[in-house]
C-alpha cells in the first residue's frame, strides 16, 4: 500500500511538471524540494502576479459614474423635485391593413409588432386646455408638460421625431400623439 502512495505522489509531481509552464524561483523555495507538499492547486500553469487590467473604456474623472453615451436620451428632463403628477397614458402600436391583408394575406404582413408603422400614445389630461400643453418629441423620448401634469416617457421603439401628429380632444380631456416608427427592417417589410 505504501509503495502505491509513493508512486502516486511521484505521478502527481510528474503530471504537475508536465502541465505547468515554468515556475518562479519563489515557488520552488516554498515547496522545499522533494519533501514539499503538493496539492490540486499546483497542477497547471502558475497564476500570474501583478496582472494589469486594461479596459477600452477609461473614466475621465474618478467621480463619474456613467459616460454621456450610457445615459438614456431624455434623462435631463427628469425633474424629481417637480410635484406635478404623471397623467395616465396608453401606448398602442398601429399598422395599415387593407382587405388584401385581412382576407387574402397578399402583402405578407402579420399581426406582430414588427409590421407596425405607427405608435399611438393616448394621454389623459383632465381639466386641461389645448393651449396649456407643451409637447417635445425626440427619437426615443416624449416630454409633455402642462400646468397640472408632467410626463417624461421613454418610448419602446425609435420614431421619426419630425413626422408625427398630435390631436387634443377637449370633450374627453385626452391628447392623442401619433408617431411614425423607424423600422429597421423596412427593406423586408412591405407597405
Automatic annotation (TrEMBL):
One of its GO terms (molecular function) is protein-folding chaperone binding. Residues 24-33 have a biased composition (Acidic residues). Coiled coil: none annotated. GO terms for biological process: axonemal dynein complex assembly; flagellated sperm motility. Residues 86-180 form the PIH1D1/2/3 CS-like domain. It comes from the Eukaryota. One of its GO terms (cellular component) is cytoplasm. Residues 17-84 are annotated as: Disordered. Residues 73-84 have a biased composition (Basic and acidic residues). Belongs to the PIH1 family. PANTHER family: DYNEIN AXONEMAL ASSEMBLY FACTOR 6, TWISTER. This is Dynein axonemal assembly factor 6. The gene is dnaaf6.
Amino acid at each position: 500500500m505504501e509503495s502505491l502512495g509513493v508512486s502516486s505522489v511521484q505521478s502527481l509531481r510528474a503530471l504537475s511538471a508536465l502541465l505547468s509552464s515554468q515556475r518562479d524561483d519563489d515557488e520552488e523555495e516554498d515547496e522545499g524540494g522533494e519533501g514539499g507538499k503538493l496539492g490540486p492547486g499546483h497542477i497547471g500553469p502558475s497564476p500570474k502576479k501583478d496582472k494589469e487590467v486594461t479596459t477600452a473604456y477609461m473614466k475621465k474623472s474618478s467621480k463619474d459614474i456613467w459616460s454621456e453615451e450610457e445615459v438614456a436620451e431624455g434623462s435631463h428632463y427628469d425633474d424629481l423635485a417637480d410635484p406635478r403628477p404623471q397623467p395616465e397614458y396608453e401606448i398602442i402600436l398601429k399598422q395599415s391593413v387593407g382587405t388584401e391583408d385581412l382576407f387574402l394575406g397578399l402583402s405578407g404582413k402579420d399581426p406582430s409588432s414588427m409590421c407596425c408603422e405607427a405608435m399611438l400614445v393616448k394621454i389623459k389630461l383632465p381639466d386641461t386646455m389645448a393651449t396649456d400643453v407643451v409637447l417635445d418629441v425626440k427619437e426615443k423620448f416624449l416630454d409633455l408638460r402642462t400646468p397640472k401634469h408632467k410626463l417624461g416617457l421613454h418610448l419602446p421603439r425609435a420614431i421619426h421625431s419630425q413626422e408625427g401628429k398630435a390631436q387634443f380632444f377637449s370633450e374627453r380631456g385626452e391628447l392623442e400623439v401619433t408617431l411614425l416608427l423607424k423600422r429597421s427592417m423596412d427593406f423586408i417589410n412591405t407597405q
